[in-house]
């Protein structure tokens, strides 16, 4: 889940939006269904058939295909993606894909019994996800027994899964989500951090840089009092893919005309209690 206030950078990235711990509201994002095109069908111990034999690789009009098989090699799952690429960084490219008729032969990485006994696999299940449809099952693909192959038209910005093992799924036409209703950030929030375990992350705070955790009050007059403490003793170093933020934790969403009070201690001779 991606729990970031809507007003901050990187909002909207991730598999699930879960940025309202006060309401419990969440929303599934398209990467969940794109990932399910593999994880819903491929089991533990399965392997990827190699590119050298043409079982996985790139498509001529953009996109990729990857073939997975179980240890027995008596079945297969083929994942085809024709997604448009929009890179957020300067060092990676951006590309589009085009419609493409695809034809795959059942040979090479499968057990000979599967390739020879195609009567048991007269059709293959087909699943699709695009911008408007999530993990939808399409009509089965027929296997051409004479050529031991199957084919379909792959459209741009779409992900497909072809499976020799029919398996139920759920998507936009399946079981509805039961997320609690969305609600605005509470207008009145008070926290003295005494209700947490040491090293816990307090509710509603989001660490944009560094790490902030609940810790014992270092002053002599603490008497068991707990505080929120910065846990990063120095710069974290330089990230290769983005900028390094200074230590900062954030509380609250889009707030206007609010009154905030806080008690702060700067240790190590940096100052007194504010």
Describe the structure.
- The protein is mainly β.
- It has 2 helices and 15 strands.
- Strand 1 and strand 2 form a beta hairpin.
- It is elongated.
- GO terms for molecular function: galactosylceramidase activity.
- This is Glycosyl hydrolase family 59 catalytic domain-containing protein.
- One of its GO terms (biological process) is galactosylceramide catabolic process.
Short description:
GO terms for molecular function: galactosylceramidase activity. By secondary structure, the chain is mainly beta.
Give the tags.
galactosylceramidase activity, two-stranded antiparallel sheet, Glyco_hydro_59, TIM Barrel, GH59_cat, 274 residues, mainly beta, 27% strand, 2 helices
- Number of beta strands: 15
Please provide the ordered H/E string of secondary-structure elements.
EEHEEEEEHEEEEEEEE
Strand residue content: 25-35%
User: Helix fraction?
Assistant: under 10%
Which architecture name of the largest domain does CATH use?
Answer: Alpha-Beta Barrel
Distance between the termini: 36 Å
Instruction: Profile the largest sheet.
Output: 7 strands, antiparallel
Average pLDDT, rounded to a whole number, is 80
Computed Rg:
26 Å
- CATH class assignment of the largest domain: Alpha Beta
How many distinct folded domains? 2
Shape verdict: elongated
* CATH homologous superfamily identity of the largest domain: Glycosidases
- The helix/strand class is mainly beta
| CATH fold label of the largest domain | TIM Barrel
Poorly predicted runs are 115-119, 170-175
DSSP helix count?
Answer: 2
